[in-house]
Design brief:
The longest helix is centred in the last third of the chain and has 37 residues. The N and C termini lie far apart (about 65 Å). The chain has seven helices and no strands. It is mainly α and about 180 residues long. It has one domain.
């Protein structure tokens, strides 16, 4: 095992921890800030592993999340189209095999979910996208990123259940208030 590989795995682990924490945050801005930090570390991880499909996707993810943090409540669909087009161009330029499409497809699907920001939808889509990332990480041989993807799938399920339970609890509380 080379030193570069070990460093890449350490970066993947730290990035994983940041993304795990992100989906259990409550405010959109905090979630997206954690994701920017996570994506920066994952970018370095995939550069070290020489996985261009993934690291170019991460560059766009960093830009995307930074824009989402800064954009106001108005939806800029022109900017959404620019990001979507950029992902498609990356998809075309980096096509090697079916596995090289997975990170780009996951990023494109996730882009649409986070752009419109519905917390439950984002968590569900993230869970779905982690499956693509799991397959790609297994393919490129990143042990830590593969385990991180698997744990992220489980964590996303937990976040979805917690979110739904919180919503159900609030509805019960509202009903009780009206009954009094």
């Amino acid at each position: 095992m080379s030193v570069i590989y070990i460093i890449s795995q350490i970066l993947a682990f730290i990035s994983f921890l940041l993304s795990l924490i992100a989906y259990h945050r409550k405010e959109k801005k905090n979630i997206m800030l954690m994701m920017v930090l996570s994506n920066v570390l994952y970018l370095l991880h995939y550069v070290l592993l020489q996985a261009p499909s993934w690291y170019m996707t991460k560059v766009l993810a960093i830009l995307r999340d930074s824009v989402i943090i800064k954009k106001d409540k108005k939806k800029s669909y022109a900017l959404l189209l620019v990001f979507a087009f950029s992902y498609v161009v990356l998809w075309i330029l980096n096509y090697e095999n079916i596995f090289s499409i997975l990170p780009l497809l996951a990023a494109l699907i996730y882009l649409i979910a986070v752009w419109n920001w519905n917390e439950l939808v984002v968590k569900k889509i993230a869970c779905f996208c982690y499956i693509f990332w799991l397959v790609y990480n297994i393919y490129i041989g990143s042990i830590v990123a593969s385990l991180a993807s698997l744990i992220s799938i489980i964590s996303s399920f937990i976040a979805i259940i917690r979110f739904k339970n919180k919503k159900t609890s609030h509805k019960k509380d509202e009903r009780l208030c009206w009954e009094m």
